[in-house]
Amino acid sequence: MRFSLQDIKKSVRRQQDELTVSLHFLQKDALTDEIAQLIVYYERLLGQPQRQFSLDEARACVGDYRMAHCLLATLSRWYSWQQREWSEVLQGLNGQPELAAITSPIQLRLALYDFANEHYHGFLDAQTRKEALHLFAEIHALDVQDVAYLLTLDTDDEAQLVRTTPTPPSPQEVATLYNQWAFEAALFNASSVRFLIDCNAFSTHQLTPSTGVGAVIKRLCYLARKIGVYYDLAYAQTLPGMPPLLILTLYGPQEVTGAAQQYGLRLARLCRLLMGYSSTSPETTHKAKKPALVSAIVEAMATVHFLHRSYRFRMDAALLRLLPPKEQKDELEQNMDANVQSENTLLFDSSIEQSFAEAFTALAMSNATDGWRLEREPEPLLLEHSIFIPDFALTRDQRRIYIEILGFWTPAYRERKLQKLLQLQERDDLVLAIPVEAKEAFASIFSAFPIVLYTGQLSATEILTTLRTHYDDFDERLTQIDVAVVRASVQCNGLLAESVCFDVLHCYRRSELQRAVTHVVNEDIVFSTGVGLYTKTWMERVKEVFVSWLRTVHAMELSHALHVLRQQERVLQNYADSALEAMIGMWTEVRIRRDSIFDATIMYVGNENVMQQSEMVREQPVAYLSSEKPAKPREKRNVSQKSTKSTKAQTTQKDLWG
Fold first, then answer.
1. What ranges in 244-313 are assigned the alpha helix state H?
2. How does pLDDT run across 76-88, given as a tens digit for each residue?
3. Range with lowest mean pLDDT among 387-391, 558-562, 638-642
4. Residues 6 or more apart from 196 whose CB is under 8 A from it?
5. Could you give the C-alpha distances from 199 to 219, 274, 384, 634, in angstroms and in order?
6. Is the pLDDT at 431 greater than 90, yes or no?
7. In angstroms, rounded to a whole number, what is the distance separating the alpha carbons of residues 640 and 516?
8. Integer Cα distance of 31 and 176 in angstroms
9. What is the CATH number of domain 348-472?
10. pLDDT tens-digit series, residues 106-127
11. If you write DSSP's letter for every residue of 419-441 in order, what string do you get?
């Protein structure tokens, strides 16, 4: 049971037209005797019902009713009021066997209700109540006092005080936990927490593998995403020669949706982690060494709200010493120290970002991303007065494009995003993804950036389409092709696989490859889709050797035949089965027959296959390929005069509905 900010003893001051609030934290050895007396009072009541607990007597142990209320709530970490088990109580009573059929006080009260209906017409006045309870108790062989106790066994007054830990707490443990809960209660009502951070302090304490501002920013972003706190970063301008300063703003429960207490706990945890009070281990507590993160924080301040007003709540190193240190690092800090930039620790601000990254990764595995490589948490973009952290970056060759997925959070969020995007409108390397419902809110920047609208989830293919439209550099890549070198490579090896052609011709799509090979092919060099670039001489030689072998065996399993083909030609050893099948499909002397999707047989048919080409799937080599595929001839259909008239009539028919 936690206490609220209004329950905490505090003082309010006005400083420079701002209201500041200072919470009353318990310093070391403060109220030690009073807390010890309160613990003794609790220990004396162990096993006693709650009706014997006196709130006034407990408050008297502390002396301050407001502090007493908070300390009583703090003791709930070690003590709690619990209801007694029905079966346990019955074991101490000698009642009739019928009582065993009753399993709870509710059923006992129902039995008494039925008894009153049967014998007293459903009504008991003050005079007959004692008599009725006595008769009801005799039926179950119980005393009247036992019946009265069982009837109220599940009430709060009959709950017994139990200790949930093996040993009672010490006064210092209670005081430290009170300080922690008071600190968290302030952040439950916070709209934002602002940290002013000195980046040089990180490199001084070797907290990051690199000393740049970007590494510090990525670390802070990782912490915020890991814990689940919304944040913003700004770059504080300083005088020449002064160390760079970062402004990290963590948004509190007042600025987001959801349960305030749950989000407030995450916000408090991140603040405590950033301020470094838990970074010291028990072995080093005796050393007067200042935590690294504490030395990096120049200023920490939260904006809290209560009683319809906003207040400034300052946090400093003195406050950290009052909070409980942890004996060991948790999983978050271990992952953070191991490798902040590891791919296993990628975090996402929303399910939209995660689904987009998963879809793009799936496309990349099938080489369908046009050569773009996706990067999560790229380097921050330093603006004049703030910092912009894109969600993703796409890299291809020397080109780098940033992707920002905008949400539809709060008006304040949209305003902050717009202010940053307006500072980036001169850049040509940023693509925005905007939800359809937020189209009007971001309409002012539509003309400045490539925009992708989405509903529900962001499509990776739509992002790729936008990149092709706005960042197509194929003509520039065509000029980079060294035709002489490519032809020499084909003449030397006899074959360049299609996958290699993509690289040497600087292509990322088949449509681009079809256009690029037209600069390479000539009378001797030919390109075939699925096979690659090859010389006619090399292809005729490979074909002659393979067909001569197949003629001797007549038929063979396709897998074994492909193995033989790879053994014959060294250049084909790493060739995919599909590419080899495409090559064999060009030879009219052989046929591949598939009796099922698993069984395939290759046969030598000689010149018989010329009459059965319609049964085979093959692609003829071309000496010149255009960017457009030839249109398939349409089959001529014999249409009767009657059907022609009917079609014409249907075409010219007017709207029957007016």
1. 260-274, 292-296
2. 999 999 998 888 8
3. 638-642
4. 236, 245, 246, 247, 297, 298, 299, 300
5. 11, 13, 18, 70
6. yes
7. 47
8. 12
9. 3.40.1350
10. 988 898 899 889 888 888 888 8
11. HHHHHTTT-SSEEEEEEGGGTTT
Instruction: Please tell me which residue, 46 or 388, carries the higher pLDDT value.
Output: 46
Our CA dihedral for 534, 538, 544, 546, rounded to 10 degrees, sits at -70
pTM above 0.70, yes or no: no
Question: Rounded CA gap, 104 and 87, in Å?
Answer: 9
Strands (E), 24-124: 79-82
Where is pLDDT greater, at 281 or 472?
472
Q: How far is CA 68 from CA 76, 141, 183, 282, 503, in A?
A: 13, 45, 17, 31, 75
Count of CB atoms within 10 A of residue 78's CB? Answer: 17
Tokens 């038929």 -> residue: 555
- Dihedral of alpha carbons 462, 464, 466, 468, sign: negative
Q: What CA–CA distance (Å, rounded) separates 442 from 436? A: 10
pLDDT tens, 301-340?
Answer: 888 888 888 899 988 777 777 777 654 444 444 444 444 4
At residue 228, the pLDDT reads 77
Q: Cβ distance 587 to 529 under 8 Å?
A: no
Instruction: Mention every residue, 6+ apart, whose C-beta is less than 8 A from residue 369.
Output: 360, 363, 460, 464
* 374-395 as b/e: b if 16+ CB within 10 A: bebbbbbbeeeebbbbbbbbbe
pLDDT at 546 over 50: yes
Question: Is 496-615 a CATH 1.20.1070 domain?
Answer: no
DSSP category for residue 614: G
Length of the chain: 658
Half-sphere exposure of 238 (CA within 13 A, CB side): 15
Q: Cβ distance 177 to 324 under 8 Å?
A: yes
Give residue 219's pLDDT. Answer: 73
SS3 at position 156: helix
Taking a C-beta distance cutoff of 8 angstroms, is the pair 510, 370 a contact? no
- Domain ranges in the chain are 5-83+159-163, 86-153, 189-340, 348-472, 496-615
Least trusted range by pLDDT, from 80-94, 154-168, 452-466: 80-94
pLDDT at residue 343 is higher than 90: no
Helices (H), 524-655: 536-553, 558-568, 577-584, 641-652
- Show Cβ contacts of residue 350 under 8 Å, excluding neighbours closer than 6 positions: 405, 407
- Average pLDDT in the 544-562 region? 90
Rounded CA gap, 114 and 359, in Å?
A: 65
The separation between CA 522 and the C-alpha centre of its own chain, rounded to angstroms, equals 53
Q: Token pair for residue 553?
A: 């065996």
Identity of the residue numbered 180: Q
Q: What is the β-pairing status of strands 532-535 and 525-528?
A: antiparallel
Closest listed residue to residue 376, CA positions, set 234, 225, 232, 229? 225
Nearest Cα neighbor of 324 from 74, 23, 66 is 74
> What's the whole-number mean pLDDT along residues 505-534?
92
Residues 6+ apart with CB under 8 A from 158: 49, 50, 51, 83, 84, 149, 152
Q: Assess contact for 208 and 292: CB atoms under 8 A.
A: no
Can 348-472 and 496-615 be said to share one CATH topology?
A: no
Q: How far are the Cα atoms of 34, 163, 312 from residue 67, in angstroms, in the given order?
A: 11, 22, 22
- In the block, tokens 């499509």 appear at 459
List the Cα angle 307/264/228 in 5-degree steps.
145
Residue 294, pLDDT above cutoff 80: no
593's tokens? 């027959």
Mean pLDDT of the chain: 80
Which amino acid is located at 134 in the chain? H
C-alpha distances in angstroms, 104 versus 107, 109, 141, 146, 595? 5, 9, 17, 14, 72
Angle at 474 between CA 473 and CA 480, to 5 degrees: 100
